[in-house]
């Protein structure tokens, strides 16, 4: 999940409230019959070993963004065997499975597939030893250091459970295995490739996604309203005129322009955006030149934006254009050499539907496999899942962070003064096998609640 570490800075509050249930929203009661809940738990338990083996296989065979060919193949194979209408190669490696089961709403469930260029140090018997070539042509170790292997496994598990319980629900289930969440490009790539047009995947009435997190198995975060910020990437290239370091008057220095931009871009947040909205601008990379005495031709800034809504994003992007172009003009850059400003990657802010989240809370209050819940905590990080439903009217969305850390490891870390035993993107990040079963039950519980017969 993109920059989940940022999210966990605020989720550390969870440690201080572990064991408490907050109830700031009047619950809309779950109406799912207890007999169906009991049946679901038995189905998931009976399939747990099979599903855990799939998880181990995915963990041992991670793939980088837009390279998830093997992972997508595992998902497609499972869905095809279960009778889903399966579409592959959406947005390069994305998979969509559709199961129509009579009249009723359309529920879309999404899991992401991509791994990270991190060398695994978990010591697990199924730890990754894989390497891969990234988009820059560099070979690096690869591991699932953010739990996307578990997120993918939940897609497969939900397919098995809902097929086995077809007589207990009605509607259409759409399962999405999404590529490239880490660079926040995969969801939009699937939409742009024709998820709803060329592939005719039904637009959802309800949308659900889950993501692993390093708090204990059995806990989950249930926020209504804004959960995360939106995000996008901006690349700025200043075009100058190169020259000898001793004769800067014969050149137009892109390094100087980059330096001015680094300082002036800080005013984008303080002067272009509403102080009551979330706006963060990070300059994550500055690249220019090679030699001590050579003024280069270009300089390159890589910017990361976080924002609470699309209007704030637009204001930030306008501010970037104003400042960058103004700097170029002030330094004598000709019109044909004005800075190149490009936007890539997009994830809208995640806004969980209040009524749906209230029902989910009510449903999870009825089961023993959920033992802790934290309500209404927004986090500063970002994720691109909701790009799959951006612009679709009246869809009700829910995104859940779920605990997948071994409770013993969590307790030990707490005793040692740590907030978590590990955090996403670390080489020791891991998902307890019981977390696979927990997430499988939670997704099935919500799906059955939404698609139950009336």
TrEMBL record:
UniProt-listed SUPFAM superfamilies: Bacterial exopeptidase dimerisation domain, Zn-dependent exopeptidases
InterPro entries with a match to the protein in the record: Amidohydrolase, Bact_exopeptidase_dim_dom, Peptidase_M20, Peptidase_M20_dimer
Keywords: Hydrolase
Domain Peptidase M20 dimerisation stretches: 233-326
One Pfam family of this chain: Peptidase_M20
rRNA-binding among keywords: no
Top-level taxon of the source organism: Bacteria
Annotated protein name in UniProt: Amidohydrolase
